[in-house]
Task: inverse folding
């Protein structure tokens, strides 16, 4: 496969840069080491974070594609670069939860940790200016952010991804507490877009409950760089060195 030519910077987000390529239907995604929390109020550069997120996201997006969920990933271009289909991001973030944590625990005034008897799907409006407020499917439809069939597909895909990831992380003795997904439109289809990373997931070591995710940075629980190196070693333990 020929290497696409990287073109102009189209967009720079908190953790990634998106570049044009010589094919208008494809974009080049570059993962940065920058970490932010609390909607950008807390910032740092975490050595190696971009590479860990990119390698893990590539692996998990390939796993979900093999499990029947269409994704925007075309292929990895290197340890911190991916070639992806250009999509219009749907401004509705989908969070799937298996245990009570984070904003849901706070909203309900409960301790983190309760195992939910069935997964909970929540929706948030993707807006930095508004701090990603929680919405529901009716609001998303009424505001014209997503159509009914798109929301139905997003929910079904999110639950399929959850089942696949529970098995994957469970095999590494890691509990998948929750995670956030973003979807995009390409033509008339809805695709899983963006990333599946420890930045956008809660991963607790089974037995100890130790955080192996971005909460280490958000909550000052230790050195995120070291925790991410430990995680990437576990994820690629069975992969022969290139
Ligand atoms: N999440 C994310 N980006 C956001 C908000 C949440 O990736 O802008 C992820 C977060 O890492 C966690 C899950 O979505 O795995 C649920 O987050 P929650 O709603 O509990 O919010 P938080 O307490 O993380 O702000």
Result:
């Amino acid at each position: 496969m020929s290497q696409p030519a990287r073109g102009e910077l189209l967009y720079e987000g908190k953790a990634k840069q998106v570049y044009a390529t010589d094919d208008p239907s494809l974009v080049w995604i570059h993962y940065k080491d920058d970490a932010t929390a609390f909607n950008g109020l807390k910032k740092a550069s975490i050595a190696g974070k971009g590479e860990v997120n990119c390698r893990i996201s590539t692996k998990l997006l390939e796993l979900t594609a093999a499990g029947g969920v269409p994704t925007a990933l075309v292929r990895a271009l290197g340890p911190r670069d991916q070639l992806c289909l250009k999509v219009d991001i749907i401004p509705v973030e989908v969070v799937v939860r298996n245990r009570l944590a984070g904003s849901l625990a706070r909203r309900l005034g409960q301790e983190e940790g309760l195992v939910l008897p069935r997964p909970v799907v929540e929706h948030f409006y993707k807006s930095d200016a508004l701090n990603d407020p929680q919405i529901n499917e009716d609001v998303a439809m009424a505001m014209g952010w997503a159509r009914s069939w798109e929301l139905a597909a997003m929910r079904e895909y999110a639950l399929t991804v959850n089942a696949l990831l529970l098995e994957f992380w469970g095999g590494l003795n890691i509990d998948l507490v929750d995670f956030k997904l973003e979807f995009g439109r390409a033509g008339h289809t809805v695709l899983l877009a963006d990333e599946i990373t420890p930045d956008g997931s809660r991963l607790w070591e089974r037995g100890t409950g130790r955080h192996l995710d971005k909460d280490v940075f958000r909550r000052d629980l230790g050195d995120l760089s070291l925790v991410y190196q430990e995680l990437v070693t576990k994820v690629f333990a069975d992969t022969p060195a290139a």
The longest helix spans residues 148-170. Residues 104 and 222 are 24 Å apart (CA to CA). The pocket of uridine-5'-diphosphate is lined by residues 95, 101-104, 132, 178-180, 200-202, 214 (CB under 6 Å).
